[in-house]
Amino acid sequence: MNNAKSILLIDYEASVRAVLHTCLSEIGGWNVIAAASFEEGLALLSTRKLDAVIMDNDRAKRASIIFVQKLKENPLTQSIPILLITYKASWYTPQNLRDMNFVGAIAKPFDPVHLPVQISQLLGWNSSVIS
Predict the structure, then answer these.
(1) Listed residue (2, 5, 31) closest to 127, CA to CA
(2) What sign does the dihedral 38-6-46-69 (CA atoms) show?
(3) Would you give the distance in Å from CA 89 to the centre of its chain?
């Protein structure tokens, strides 16, 4: 697991965050850093090298926009891909997602077993390790 990808996970709902953390670390084999807010996520960004961010924007729309702007304005973090995980995933077209700097959206509720494969596909990561 030395080459495991590192993912920042931001979700305000503690129970959903816990399930996502388990899916991504246990099934996906990734290093997961979880945050309960965008402010906490920004603080964590400055301390770690990350391969992706997975975030929900349902509860704090304005904070999520500011978070993404700060991520994309910083030369050290602007290339980190961001995935949206939300109950409203079907509301967004691929163009909407690109305009908001997201590489894709995953719908809640999600299938915990298939979530890592879905994330790998959206991010273009090799998912051969995941069954």
Answers:
(1) 5
(2) negative
(3) 13
pTM of the model: 0.90
1 in any annotated domain: no
- How far is residue 69's CA from residue 22's CA, in Å, rounded to a whole number? 28
- Three-state secondary structure call for residue 39: helix
- Cβ of 37: how many Cβ atoms within 10 Å? 15
Q: Can you give the CATH number for the domain in which 98 is found?
A: 3.40.50.2300
Six-digit token string for 64: 């999520």
The residue type found at 102 is F
In a domain, 128, yes or no: no
pLDDT in tens, 18-65: 999 999 999 999 999 999 999 999 999 888 889 999 999 876 678 888
| Cα–Cα dist 33/36, whole Å | 10
Q: Which domain holds residue 83?
A: 6-123
